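Our collaborator T.R. sent over the components below with a one-line note: 'Predict the complex.' Nothing else. No constraints on interfaces, no templates requested, no preferences about which chain binds where. So this is a plain run: every listed entity goes in together, and whatever single assembly comes back becomes the starting point for the next discussion.
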Amino acid sequence: MTEQRKFSHCQIVDCTIRDGGLVNNWDFSVEFVQDLYESLNEAGVEYMEVGYKNSPKLLKGAENAGPWRFLNDDFLRKVIPEKKKTKLSALVDVGRVDENDILPRSESPLDLIRVACYARDTAKAIELATLFNERGYETTINIMALSNVMDNELSEALAMISESPIDVVYIVDSYGSLDPEDIRYLVEKFRRGLKNKRLGVHTHNNMQLALANTLTAAEMGVELLDASVYGMGRAAGNCHTELLLAKLSKSKYNLRPVLGMIERYMVGLREREEWGYLIPYMITGVLDEHPRSAMAWRASPERDEYLNFYDRLTTPETFPKS
Amino acid sequence: MTEQRKFSHCQIVDCTIRDGGLVNNWDFSVEFVQDLYESLNEAGVEYMEVGYKNSPKLLKGAENAGPWRFLNDDFLRKVIPEKKKTKLSALVDVGRVDENDILPRSESPLDLIRVACYARDTAKAIELATLFNERGYETTINIMALSNVMDNELSEALAMISESPIDVVYIVDSYGSLDPEDIRYLVEKFRRGLKNKRLGVHTHNNMQLALANTLTAAEMGVELLDASVYGMGRAAGNCHTELLLAKLSKSKYNLRPVLGMIERYMVGLREREEWGYLIPYMITGVLDEHPRSAMAWRASPERDEYLNFYDRLTTPETFPKS
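Returned assembly:
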């Protein structure tokens, strides 16, 4: 069933290239990215996050990554020479971005810069986001791993953001361990702690709750909704863009172009690369842990030994978590 | 996150063999079914639905089906010679069951007989379920395809059941088109229309909402929750048993045995047989239609032509629905 009015405040931020790049080391062709941009634009999706704008100088071991790992403005302008309605976004991580890489917005094809941080790094995230804001960008602060943050630490982070000029703050379920009741709790907490801010949500699908969590947030007034086409994103992946288009039913949204993109690219890509609901990712979601141990397990010869993996994670003395 | 108290009223009915049989024509080995029974029993799952108890005389074209399609009590007693805590269930369809096939419960390994019907066949379902009740079984009436029933017809069906001796009534999302808000509406409607009845819920995963819908119903007091291991069920499949075990967190539930069953059987089976989130099933869910057109499409050479399928379903004059 669909709902034609209650989601009119929502906007979709498609993260296929940025979060999906964590799956295939950003090995997307220019044609792929161009097709995705055209499809999202036709579908009415408001934002496309086309990669990271971190600095390769600050991130070792990433030399073989595709160009969406360290976006270059000139390159991006060649890929998308004519921007249409869909705006372009990039993510930066606190500690990995060189602020000198961020040109004034008038000289960049990017519209939105999102700053990802852990709650403990909120002060630094505010500093960066404020700077990018001054350079003309829309900005957000995305607080990661909320299921592993002490409530008092989160309250303090929200109080700091509340006094800053940052416009949008994201609830990020990095481990895919939250359910709709948790989302309701967090949205209420963010609302109480943040006066006059807009909210966003980024979910992962470890427990097959990414869409339900996103819809729960949207029903509560959260405005920016992250999603990826066919769910492509790290480990269990994200809320699916095609499902969000179908469920939000805003009159400007059109499901069909994204179905075409899935047909042309995503099904074949999913046969070569792995993401989505797999038991090791479900296990880390259930245990409220970062998926890195599950990703390593899926890359090992024991990849389908679920009991072995479960036993190691639930008897941690035999398997250090990090 | 988990919740340790609010689901204490819930019981799980695992439908892997019955609904999963719709995927592989009930071609499960005896060893598979025995392993599943042991795993569910160790996991603390209350019911295992081990097949259909329809009559082959009343269902043409099913000659090649496996033995779980038309359960035989003697055969079932050989498969599971020693019943443990997990009770056994069978489903019958109105119009396809010969009531003479249902022995008194004292002579059968079955504990629960569930009668599936469309709302228009409720009178017949009540008659059958009452008869099986008199023969000693626990019984339920499962009203299918609720997203396609006129509200007045459903109200009339509930009024009839309300006056019957049937104990449990199921909300069945046959098309996988409902979301948590729809479930809330239906649970409230069933509660209003059915005095002193217990409720159950059976979901499909076309929109990746099967778990969220099931949890929503459970939070509202619905007691019997259907699920299948690794989601195996017709088309997009069902709510996953392993996820329900993880989320309900009842002290008697144990996730580990079902993870073992998935490792031993389900991953290999999923490579040979197809179910789960696939775009044609998502499309029929979005359009609130029976998945039969999508199942036929997936069996055709055009199986990955999603735009073609979408265009045909949304311009029905070119593609009759049934």
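Summary for T.R.: The radius of gyration of chain B is 19 Å.
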